[in-house]
Amino acid sequence: MLMRTDPFRELDRLTQQFFGAPGTASRPAAVPMDAYRDGSEFVVRFDLPGVTADSITLDVERNVLTVRAERAATAPDGAEYLVGERPRGVFSRRLFLGDALDTDRIEAGYDAGVLTVRIPVAERAKARRITVGSGDAKAQLTA
């Protein structure tokens, strides 16, 4: 139902680690996530510590869910950083959603630095039981 999004994400993370401060590269920093199915919906949890809820945006276009958030610098203007390991700036993650998901009914909530997105399985994709008629029923249908 959910498809892997970026096979080069780990390489990108390592490149940012060695050649530039996290969150300052030309490409937005990646957002760690967990995804699992819970009954008739998929749940995706994104780690966004230190991000305010109003800086988070979710967009769906052609079965692609894009999550964007921004963490601003917390030091006052004019302060000199001695250590700057916490990423700041724009964070982004894209998920390619399967056709079996209902993108019109996506719900999201943010609590304790974790964005939880719930994506229901579309009615047309849910398992259903099909009754099998006997030979007599088939004969009645064709008569």
From TrEMBL:
Q: Which PANTHER family match?
A: HEAT-SHOCK PROTEIN 20 FAMILY MEMBER (PTHR11527)
Enumerate the spans annotated as SHSP domain. 24-135
Q: Give the species this sequence originates from.
A: Amycolatopsis australiensis
* Any matching Pfam family: HSP20
List where this protein forms a coiled coil: none
The name under which this protein is listed is HSP20 family protein
Q: Which family does it belong to?
A: Belongs to the small heat shock protein (HSP20) family.
